[in-house]
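Hey team,

Filing this mostly as a record. A colleague (T.K.) asked me to run one chain through the structure pipeline before their review meeting, and I want the input and output archived in the tracker in case anyone asks later how it was produced. No errors, nothing strange. Just documentation.

Input sequence:
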Amino acid sequence: MNKKIIVFATIVLNSIITMAQNTDTLNNQYQNSAEMMLNYNGKLGIGGYGEVHYNQPMTKNIKESGTMDVHRLVMFLGYNFTKKTQFVSEIEFEYAKELWVEQVFLQHKINKFINFRAGLMLVPMGIINEFHEPTSFNGVERPVIDNRLSLSTWREIGLGFSGNIFPASLKYQLYVMNGLSSYDTKGIFNGSSGLREGRQKGSKAYINSPSYTGKIEYYGIKNLNIGLSAYFGASQSKLYSKLHNDSTNLKINADSSVVDIRMLGLDTRYHINGFEFRGQFYYTFLTNTEQYNKFSRISGKNNDLGNVMLGYYLEVGYNVFKTFNSIKEELVPFVRYEYYNTHQSVDNNTTKNPSYKNTIITTGLSYRLNKNAVIKADVQFVKPDSVNEFTKIFNVGIGFMF
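Output structure:
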């Protein structure tokens, strides 16, 4: 079944590219909040976004309470020291009580093609990790695979280069960063949440070896964006701290507490005549998982990390107000099909868990009052491979950015 979906997605993508090649103008330079701040012409720039959610499980024959949540309120503050040297920060309040720094970096323009960046930055994997403002995607909640596989919102401290190669219609980012944490006082990675809990988020992050990440995005065909992203590196472990070179047993333990990570992502966005198409694919390959799981179990944590994680989604929507020139708002019914498996492959001593293999279908409406304000509603149908029926969740929310 999954092979058929991938073949279908390839056919759809090829068809989109064929249609798009018949056009001759561009209209697909996406900008997230940080990029909007960097393009601000004044000295001091202020911006932000936020969203409020209502989530109601719809369990058969069981009455459940819903939850209402100020999911996040984010404020941006930027400053242009000169036309070349800029500062951007992003402060996030989550669940009306948690405070996080999501971004804080300096950018210096070397020339029109190259920018140098350093600080706490987003890892450029996929779409949502960089474009997670609620007005930029359909559905009340972000796609599930952007939580399970791309670890949104994923940010780490590092430095590198970004920019545009305008003659080739290519946007690029290349960074060296600190890596994900796999062991502090216990093993952190597992089959259920994958690598997500290893995000260090710039909070007293420790580093044993650097990680490397980058993305190339092509926007040379009208209304079409295609991105290829990658992340490579070993995870970080506190067992390497103050480790003497002659401590053989301690070195073996430390080596067993890390995994090598190779993550690849492919994404595409396309819109034409009111139709919106979007898709993402992630593939994560891990090594040393057998030793990692074994060591974690010895230390009291029953970890079951897989060595291959895979996920993708396909989404289509249509603005039904497109044919009415007098209506400036947009009403977009959409449907999204998602699949992910954090136990796509496992080591010899780990048993595949069918509950880690999930299908999610999300269908709903996005009512865009303008480009910066949206009202959303959807129903999510979720089915792990371990059960025969879909569970349902009804979601309503508002979102804004400025």
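Quick notes for T.K.: The longest strand covers residues 330-345. The chain is about 10% helix and 50% strand.
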